[in-house]
């Protein structure tokens, strides 16, 4: 299964990166680099999915990402 991840620098804490999965808000983490944040978030995702499986609940579908272009005047 593949889930869309968002990885971005925390605006409140420069130098800290956040990684999260919009389809599974419980699975998120942070790190000192985008790669570290994503690695930790992937571990969280695996734990959440294992818990869902163990409790007989379905895995949520992934979100659909769409790029939107705007002209800022």
Strand order of the largest sheet: 1-2-3
The sequence of SSEs as H and E is EEEH
Q: What does the largest sheet look like? A: 3 strands, antiparallel
Quaternary structure state of the chains depicted: single chain
Number of strands: 3
Low-confidence segments: none
- Number of contiguous helices: 1
Class inferred from helices and paired strands: alpha+beta
Task: Classify the beta-strand content into a percent band.
Answer: 15-25%
N- to C-terminal separation?
Answer: 41 Å
- Gyration radius, rounded: 14 Å
Helix content: 25-40%
- From the spread of the alpha carbons, the general shape counts as flat
Average of per-residue pLDDT values: 96
3D structure, described in words:
With 73 residues, this protein is an alpha+beta fold. The protein has one helix spanning 34-54; strands at residues 6-9, 17-21, 24-31. The protein has a three-stranded antiparallel β-sheet, with helices on one face. A hairpin with a 2-residue loop joins strand 2 (17-21) and strand 3. The chain starts with 5 loop residues before the first strand and ends in a 19-residue tail after the last helix.
Key attributes of the depicted protein:
73 residues, alpha+beta, 1 helix
Short description:
The chain is of the alpha+beta class and 73 residues long.
Helix-strand blueprint:
Layout: E1 6-9, E2 17-21, E3 24-31, H1 34-54
Antiparallel strand pairs: 1-2, 2-3
